[in-house]
Amino acid sequence: MINGLNHITLSCSSLEKSLIFYHGLLQFDIEHRWDKGAYLSCGNLWFCLIEKGNYQAAPQGYNHLAFSVAQEDFDIWQEKLQAANVQQWQDNSSEGDSFYFLDPDGHQLELHVGNLQSRLASIENHH
Description:
This protein is an alpha+beta fold. The chain contains 3 helices and 8 strands. It is globular and about 45 Å long.
């Protein structure tokens, strides 16, 4: 079962300007920042910003919505989506199982196992 929204990722032209907007104006909390991106939170929402020049995999950038799925359901959902011939737009290269796919209108979506806390723990373990 898909359990809800996992995170939102937006490509931005300037990380600094976006942080002024999302952190300074909207008061999202900065959870982790790197050279060209940041993880923020707003209540239970995990929100990611990636500077556009840092990511070129898809022509429309890295904008996508991710939905939560339990680890035990991940393979079933991935197989179901592949059997329906949905287009995959990227392979997973980050913490937690993910399947990146397009909806009929080309919106970039992701099924993801994990959450902001598991991502932050993964970052800590690699430093």
